[in-house]
Amino acid sequence: MREITIELGGIKAGGELWDERAPKTVAALLAHLPLADRTIHVRWSGAAWRTEQNYPLRVGDVENRATWLNVGDIIYYDDPRYDLYKVAFVYGKSQWRDDQGELYVARIGRVTENLDAFVKASDAVLFHGPRPVVIRLAP
């Protein structure tokens, strides 16, 4: 397990990446850290936001796959049909989907520290638009 820090809207939250559950995807993400990006609220999947930039991480099948997600989940999804390769964060009720139905995503970690403040800052993405986000290994 690797610890990360997420900075969003003036708050810092801690999280963990599950390299034992999604080893290839997490290893690929670690190679990209730190990420400095913007948030984009998801369109079809509920209370979640994703990175604006693409991060092609997956090698092979979707690891630790899920479609129903929990508050605090950190996921990776890609959809080559639409050139989407995104890291995403769930802050409320969420089922990953597109306009055609459910999609499987890789659950790669979880926000574990300062979750309430993270949820509040994430909710602002829906109402106030994209926000800067920085994701890095914890010191």
Characterization of this structure:
This protein is an alpha+beta fold. The chain has one domain (2-137): Cyclophilin (Beta Barrel). It is 17% helix and 50% strand. The protein contains two helices and twelve strands. An eight-stranded antiparallel β-barrel has the order 1-2-11-7-8-4-3-12. Strands 9-10 form a two-stranded antiparallel sheet. Strand 9 (97-98) and strand 10 (101-102) form a beta hairpin. The two termini are 14 Å apart.
Shape summary:
globular
Name the helicity range.
10-25%
Low-confidence stretches: none
Give the oligomeric state.
Answer: single chain
Distance between the termini: 14 Å
Spatial strand arrangement across the major sheet = 1-2-11-7-8-4-3-12
Total domains: 1
